[in-house]
Amino acid sequence: MSVPTLPRRPARAVFAVLAAVAVLVPAAIHLSPGGGPGVRSAAAPPAPGAVAPASSGAWVGTWATAPSAPEPRSWDGYAGMSIRNVVHTSIGGTGVRIHLSNLYGARPLAFTHVSVAVAATDGGPAAVPGTLRRLTFAARTSVTVPAGRTTVSDPVPLTVPAAADLLVSTYSPAPSGPVTYHPHARQTSYLARGEHTLDHRGTAYTEQSPSWRYLAAVDVRSEEAQGAVAVLGDSITDGVTSTPGANHRWPDFLAARLRDEPGAPRYGVLNAGISGNRVLTDGNPYRRSNPSGLSRFERDVLARAGVRAVVIELGINDILRDPRLATGPEPLLAGLRQLTRQAHARGLRVTGGTLTPFQGYRRHRPGLEELRQRVNREIRAGTVFDAVVDFDRALRDPARPLRLLPAYDSGDHLHPSDAGYRAMAHALDLDVLAGRAAAAL
């Protein structure tokens, strides 16, 4: 799917956040191959109707992204520069740890300084005074991540608010490219020349960036969270047409529901959307970029900390681009069913989304529409997933059901507007997501 260019924008209004200290025991560094992050997998969830809270403070994902490609023209990496990634939490906690990825690297990646802090401004590079923490790895301030691997920091005590911005800063002294990144962040991050990971004012961070680099996930220690829901998706989940810096992707709206609605499961929300992603095929196998949903499901979804539920919004790019579907949707349906079986092997239930309308989009054709309708019939019939969220019904125009409702259309007739993303989040049955109610198929 084509995506718009992220505009630059200044930091916005200050929100007050106070930090409190809790004592945590540092954990040893974990390294893992590209097939999964270096954390132990979560235990299988309780049976439907018996979701229990994490006992005495468990590690749960509050934010994640899917590393999607080696950054173009980054063969020397960012030697001698500090990168300050800005990310938005879904749930809060009393401690934090981060996951750094060298998935697309061709050589070892050395970090000599890494820090985390609560952002003092909504999207800006300054930290709330007293919240900046130097991170260690196996009790050392530096770490080298082998090519194709991931590392997890030791935990540090930090009061992490829900629905707040965090600053995760890294410094690499030597060339290390290519850089593992996620290009369509819809969030402004920052760069500075020199080592400035402990600069709480952020004044050195004069260069803005629309991408996240190296950072793959943030976990919090929480006594209240019951786990996390991880979403596998494409640009619609990635939120490529949402308002930059507003956190208006549909998983963000879902996180707000889970925080605010009485009786909602207290889940973190982990967004594993990649623009242009397909179920069956990598986007660009020659650059090892945009790995297929099948190849990345374990790494980006199942192995994340505390995952208790899975949502899949994927398939429209296969219809648009995969010639194997010329004779019918069976390969795509088989791929979606395989994802469901992989989740079942981890004790997880899957809620799957119907494919959304796209008539009026430049690549829409009657034959592709027929494929979409056939896939949606199978999804609604309950032969693909454990439960269904009907994104098609939530977004379509009742007068012209092959099209997005105008208010939900970003303008390209494929990607939703902010209002459309909100409608997607509200289409999910939270009781089904928590396993407390039978799925309506």
Report on this model:
The chain is an alpha+beta fold and 441 residues long. It has a domain at 219-433: SGNH hydrolase (Rossmann fold, 3-Layer(aba) Sandwich). The protein has 9 helices and 24 strands. The chain has helices at 235-238, 250-260, 293-302, 316-321, 330-345, 366-380, 391-395, 418-427, 430-433, and strands at 30-32, 58-64, 69-70, 81-88, 93-101, 109-111, 113-118, 133-134, 143-145, 150-152, 156-160, 165-172, 180-182, 189-193, 207-209, 212-213, 215-222, 227-233, 267-273, 307-313, 350-353, 387-389, 396-397, 400-404. The strands form 6 sheets. Strands 1, 2, 5, 10, 11 and 17 form a 6-stranded antiparallel beta sheet that branches. A 6-stranded antiparallel beta sheet has the order 8-7-12-4-14-15, with no helix packed on it. The protein has a 5-stranded parallel beta sheet with strand order 19-18-20-21-22, sandwiched between helices. Strand 21 (350-353), helix 6 (366-380) and strand 22 (387-389) form a beta-alpha-beta unit. The longest helix is centred in the last third of the chain and has 16 residues, at 330-345. The two termini are 29 Å apart.
